[in-house]
Amino acid sequence: MKIAIIGYGKMGKTIDQMAVEKGHEIVLKIGITNLTDFTKEKMQQAEVAIEFSNPESAVENISNCMKWGVPVVSGTTGWLDKMDEIKVICKKENGGFFYASNYSVGVNIFFAINRQLAKMMNDQPQYQVEMEEIHHTQKLDAPSGTAITLAEGIIEEIERKSNWTKEKSDNNVDLPIISKRIDKVPGTHEIVYSSSIDSIEIKHTAHSRAGFAGGAILAAEWMVGKKGCFGMKDMLGF
């Protein structure tokens, strides 16, 4: 498979290494030093693009890939207020688009566990819930996209919760997300339900970027030849 990597930071480099080890060919690497190489002619050498850039450029990157007929797998977070715009472009261009806030298979299992636990807690108002997420200091957005996905899953299942907040709150309808940035931490997410008599905790800890990169490559393999908008639930069959 011929892959273009858009965003050649730490994640892009990990994807590059792992994709080559799997026998794929990286035909284009776009980083901050060669942005002028991001052209229709060069992109169309690829069968699929993997996009891990930044919130400011993600929408344009994804849009161009679909307009140029290249299916794109994106893991950039912090731009999701424009998701409806991207879906419109995908339909208009008959493009292929795959998005996940987190490509780790383990995290997506964690998403499913989170929803199931929240569904059970809907009838247990004595428990209050909050979340903590920890990432490396280079991560620009907070809360993380993964934390927001977890929060949205809880809010959809627990009727007494209506929104998430970036800090602790005395309002019972709020779901607090505490964000911490610590050097060299790939990603940790913990959800705690607390009552006066006990606590229930679920936690996912990433040990490296390999899980994220490997999942993105799996998604790229899965996307070749597909049209429409997809996510990890589609690929994993959850």
Can you describe what's shown?
A hairpin with a 4-residue loop joins strand 9 and strand 10 (199-206). The chain folds into 2 domains: 2-103 and 210-236, Rossmann fold, CATH 3.40.50.720; 105-206, Dihydrodipicolinate Reductase, domain 2 (2-Layer Sandwich). The protein is elongated. It contains 8 helices and 11 strands. 36% of the residues lie in helices and 25% in strands. Helix 3 (58-67) packs parallel to helix 4 (83-92) and helix 5 packs parallel to helix 6. The strands form 2 sheets. Strands 2-1-3-4-5-11 form a 6-stranded parallel β-sheet, with helices on both faces. Strands 7-8-6-9-10 form a 5-stranded mixed β-sheet. The mean pLDDT is 94. It is of the alpha/beta class and 238 residues long. The longest helix is centred in the middle third of the chain and has 17 residues, at 105-121. The chain has helices spanning 10-21, 40-43, 58-67, 83-92, 105-121, 145-157, 210-223, 232-236, and strands at 2-6, 25-30, 48-51, 72-74, 96-99, 128-135, 163-165, 174-181, 187-194, 199-206, 228-230.
Short structural summary:
By secondary structure, the protein is α/β, with parallel strands linked by helices.
Task: Annotate the secondary structure layout.
Blueprint: E1 2-6, H1 10-21, E2 25-30, H2 40-43, E3 48-51, H3 58-67, E4 72-74, H4 83-92, E5 96-99, H5 105-121, E6 128-135, H6 145-157, E7 163-165, E8 174-181, E9 187-194, E10 199-206, H7 210-223, E11 228-230, H8 232-236
Parallel strand pairs: 1-2, 1-3, 3-4, 4-5, 5-11, 6-8, 7-8
Antiparallel strand pairs: 6-9, 9-10
Helix pairs in contact: 1-7, 3-4, 5-6
